[in-house]
């Protein structure tokens, strides 16, 4: 398989290090096949973070929704993760839809393949840099859609 070599966006390594140092965790849900995802995560050097990378449970057609996969992903982590206190960071509007469906918050990043206008249409914060942290303080977290 041909894979384009790339790295983490500037600031992501420091963000993840600070995130874990503050007692938080991260997990990866990807529509990538598991046999491709694990080496990719290892190549980025983020496999040692506290929660595992997970893949879709069954093949999904290209362009299909991630919503049910997100629900299953967060359910598998239910002993340590509360969806209402979870922030999904994605690069596609479907990531925000999936987060909302699972009861989580979402932040979309413009560094992926989708343009800002399409991301903003999802109705969640959109950032150009991982250093911009638009998620609420823990004390202000509420389930999505509630005041």
Automatic annotation (TrEMBL):
- Any Pfam family from its record, for instance, is Hydrolase_like
Annotated region (Disordered), positions in chain: 51-71, 122-147
Gene3D superfamilies given for it? HAD superfamily/HAD-like (3.40.50.1000)
Domain of life of the native organism: Bacteria
Q: Which InterPro entries does this entry report, sorted A to Z?
A: HAD-like_sf, HAD_sf
Q: What is this protein called?
A: HAD family hydrolase
Q: From which source organism is this entry? A: Streptomyces prasinosporus
């Amino acid at each position: 398989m041909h894979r384009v070599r790339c790295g983490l966006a500037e600031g992501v390594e420091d963000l993840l290090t600070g995130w874990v140092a503050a007692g938080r965790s991260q997990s990866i849900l990807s529509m990538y096949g598991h046999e491709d995802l694990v080496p990719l995560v290892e190549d980025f050097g983020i496999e040692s973070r506290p929660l595992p990378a997970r893949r879709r449970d069954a093949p999904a057609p290209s362009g299909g929704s991630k919503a049910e996969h997100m629900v299953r992903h967060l359910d598998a982590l239910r002993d340590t993760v509360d969806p209402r206190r979870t922030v999904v960071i994605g690069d596609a509007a479907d990531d925000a839809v999936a987060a909302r469906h699972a009861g989580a918050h979402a932040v979309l990043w413009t560094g992926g393949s989708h343009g800002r206008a399409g991301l903003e249409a999802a109705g969640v914060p959109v950032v150009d840099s991982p250093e911009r942290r638009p998620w609420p303080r823990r004390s202000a977290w509420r389930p999505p859609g509630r005041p």
